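Q: Hi! First time doing this. I have a protein sequence and I read that you can turn it into a structure. Is that right? Here it is:
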Amino acid sequence: MRSTILALTMTAALTAAALPAQAAWQSYAAREAGFSFEAPGDVKSEKATYRAAAGQRPATVYRSLDDNIEYKVTVVDFANRANDDAALIKEAATSLQNNRKVLADAEARVETSYGRKMTFELPNNGGRSMAAIYVSRGHLIQLEVTVLPANGDYASPDLGRFVDSIAFNSGSSDPGKIELQLAK
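A: Yes, that's right. Below is the predicted 3D structure, encoded as structure tokens:
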């Protein structure tokens, strides 16, 4: 009996050690653009270029990678296109759909903000992505999570958890949120 318990304990310990480490989810806020989101691991920011039909614009990208799932938030300043939210969302959605098989495409709503949520099959067996697009305070906000083939769990609940974690009007000072700055 004692050797059976010891064997089970050793098996459980070895199994736990063999599993990939899952990073803890944390809350992040980009107050200047008026939103917050949750993602696993350490989110890194970088300057990028947003490309769409209307041309190129500077952007800020927040990114993290955990268990072969890439989490990415792209923020683009469109203050000069105030009251053009629907066109900005449509333009971003069209750009995202390029060379991808669309599995789902629906309108989305978070609080008082409207947007669009989509799921894609990536070309050349590149994985599966889920994206959501919104506009807040003159900024286009595009969340995209991609399950890479090395992970292969295309039904992972982490896709929806990330995309659905977005919240607006994040003016409250939650001490647990990590403050992110937009690239200048």
